[in-house]
């Protein structure tokens, strides 16, 4: 019997050894205050670097909505309907949550190299902290989004409350994506150079700026493909809950729920499996 086996027999564990999944999740939950504090400190640090501070979180998607809405409105020849401005606002503001979660989540381990290499804690805490940061940013964005919808002629409806379970599913999905990207960028650093391109492709293929049912009316098989696009489903469900008379497929709730749970669980397991490697591979 070697020394390692003897130590393990007496209840001692190797430094940095990966715990069981359930124990790992319990340890992560025990660090929830740390994750929340880290998220708030990042927001404060980022806002201090800009004169407008947190206002930029609102200005950026607003400018994107104005710019892309104007360009695509012209390209579609004014056939998009009277609710098109609100349609674009909802799409741009909600896509921003996915985009930020994926890009910032991908850097959650590599950008905290000194923390990972010097302290012992569940590394899952770092991407979770990133998601908390994005949620704290999302809250004022949602308020402004609804204000814009009202200014653009929308009217409050009870269906607006359905945005709450929708955002819950969206957060689950985005967390899973962030965890997968966080691990991949540790092993494939070049992935960070591709993420902006991937994000841009997803932006233009998620129905952020156009109505898929209208654009591909002559190709129903293309419309059917979007049933397998989780981000598109989020945007369509949000528009159906917020805009009057916006058609949607109720099965999107089922599809999105399945995607969210599967991607979240897969992301947690995929990230946990490499727990021992994060300290030495970055």
From TrEMBL:
GO terms for molecular function: ABC-type transporter activity. PROSITE patterns: ABC_TM2. The chain crosses the membrane at residues 84-103, 124-152, 158-180, 201-222, 253-272. Coiled coil: none annotated. Residues 52-274 form the ABC transmembrane type-2 domain. It comes from the Bacteria. GO terms for cellular component: ATP-binding cassette (ABC) transporter complex. Keywords: Antibiotic resistance, Cell inner membrane, Cell membrane, Membrane, Transmembrane, Transmembrane helix, Transport. One of its GO terms (biological process) is response to antibiotic. It is found in: Cell inner membrane; Cell membrane. It is a multi-pass membrane protein. Belongs to the ABC-2 integral membrane protein family. This is Transport permease protein. It comes from Galactobacter caseinivorans. The lineage of its organism: Bacteria, Bacillati, Actinomycetota, Actinomycetes, Micrococcales.
């Amino acid at each position: 019997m070697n020394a390692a086996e003897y130590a393990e027999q007496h209840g001692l564990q190797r430094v940095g050894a990966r715990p069981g999944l359930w124990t790992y999740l319990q340890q992560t939950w025990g660090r929830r205050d740390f994750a929340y504090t880290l998220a708030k400190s990042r927001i404060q640090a980022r806002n201090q670097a800009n004169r407008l501070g947190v206002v930029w979180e609102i200005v950026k998607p607003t400018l994107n909505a104005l710019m892309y809405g104007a360009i695509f409105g012209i390209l579609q020849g004014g056939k998009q309907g009277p609710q098109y401005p609100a349609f674009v606002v909802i799409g741009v503001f909600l896509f921003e949550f996915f985009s930020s979660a994926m890009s910032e989540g991908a850097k959650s381990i590599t950008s905290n190299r000194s923390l990972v290499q010097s302290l012992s804690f569940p590394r899952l805490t770092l991407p979770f902290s990133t998601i908390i940061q994005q949620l704290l940013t999302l809250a004022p964005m949602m308020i402004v989004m609804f204000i814009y919808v009202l200014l653009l002629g929308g009217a409050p409806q009870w269906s607006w409350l359905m945005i709450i379970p929708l955002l819950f599913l969206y957060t689950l999905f985005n967390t899973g994506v962030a965890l997968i990207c966080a691990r991949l960028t540790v092993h494939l650093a070049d992935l960070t150079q591709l993420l902006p391109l991937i994000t841009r492709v997803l932006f233009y293929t998620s129905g952020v700026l156009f109505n898929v049912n209208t654009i591909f009316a002559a190709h129903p098989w293309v419309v059917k493909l979007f049933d397998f696009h989780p981000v598109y489903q989020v945007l369509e469900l949000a528009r159906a809950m917020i805009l009057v008379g916006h058609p949607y497929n109720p099965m999107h709730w089922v599809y999105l729920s399945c995607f969210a749970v599967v991607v979240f669980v897969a992301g947690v397991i995929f990230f946990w499996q490499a727990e021992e490697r994060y300290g030495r591979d970055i």
